[in-house]
């Protein structure tokens, strides 16, 4: 991939993320973790992330929220979503934790030359999974604790139950793309090149697509709730 195209992908993702973050500053999410999740979604879904946010996740302005609260008309703005949209937002929630973990783990893997069984790619994948799992569970745990009176241990167990399958599905899709892209276009997984991050954007989008069915199943079984 030519550097100019790689930078175009990266800049488009950054612009989308910043646009969403600025809008959220005026329209904070009912579930606080989504204030982070939506901008992160914009990073790996340039332009599309803005459409998804405005169509499925945009909250009323602060003043509108205050008026609704004082008028005792407060409600969850996502409650009337079609099921496919609720699953979509749940998948972005999973993707947000995974993406943050991947973004932190990849430079560490490159800097340390970490390998698994002598493979740098396997080393990248292992560190990415560990960090993504930690952030993914955290993203589930925080809203569970905020919206229920569960003790920490029970909330953690529910977070692990809700996130494990969707996270594995997300990471599997991401790994599949990087297994294809690295020998064909990258040569090596170097987290300090624009080409790597452009390919990671695509990998995360593939991960989102592979996690969508997993989120649908978890919601159908009552393990997760559509958002």
Automatic annotation (TrEMBL):
InterPro entries: DUF4396. The chain crosses the membrane at residues 6-24, 36-53, 121-144, 165-186, 198-219. The keyword Transcription regulation does not apply. Keywords: Membrane, Transmembrane, Transmembrane helix. Pfam families: DUF4396 (PF14342). Residues 84-224 form the DUF4396 domain. It comes from the Bacteria. This is DUF4396 domain-containing protein. It comes from Larsenimonas rhizosphaerae.
């Amino acid at each position: 991939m030519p550097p100019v195209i790689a930078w175009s992908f990266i800049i488009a993702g950054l612009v989308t993320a910043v646009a969403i973050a600025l809008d959220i500053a005026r329209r904070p999410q009912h579930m606080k973790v989504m204030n982070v999740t939506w901008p992160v979604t914009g990073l790996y879904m340039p332009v599309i992330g803005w459409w998804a946010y405005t169509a499925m996740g945009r909250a009323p302005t602060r003043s509108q929220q205050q008026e609704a609260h004082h008028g005792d008309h407060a409600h969850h703005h996502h409650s009337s979503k079609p099921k496919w949209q609720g699953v979509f937002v749940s998948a972005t929630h999973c993707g947000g934790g995974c993406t943050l973990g991947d973004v932190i783990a990849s430079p560490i893997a490159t800097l340390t030359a970490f390998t698994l069984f002598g493979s740098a790619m396997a080393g990248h994948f292992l560190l990415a999974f560990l960090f993504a799992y930690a952030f993914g569970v955290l993203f589930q745990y925080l809203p569970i604790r905020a919206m229920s009176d569960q003790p920490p241990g029970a909330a953690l167990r529910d977070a692990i139950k809700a996130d494990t399958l969707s996270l594995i599905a997300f990471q599997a899709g991401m790994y599949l793309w990087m297994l294809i892209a690295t020998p064909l276009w990258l040569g090596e997984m170097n987290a300090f090149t624009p080409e790597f991050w452009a390919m990671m954007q695509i990998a995360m989008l593939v991960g989102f697509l592979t996690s969508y069915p997993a989120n649908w199943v978890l919601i159908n079984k009552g393990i997760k709730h559509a958002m």
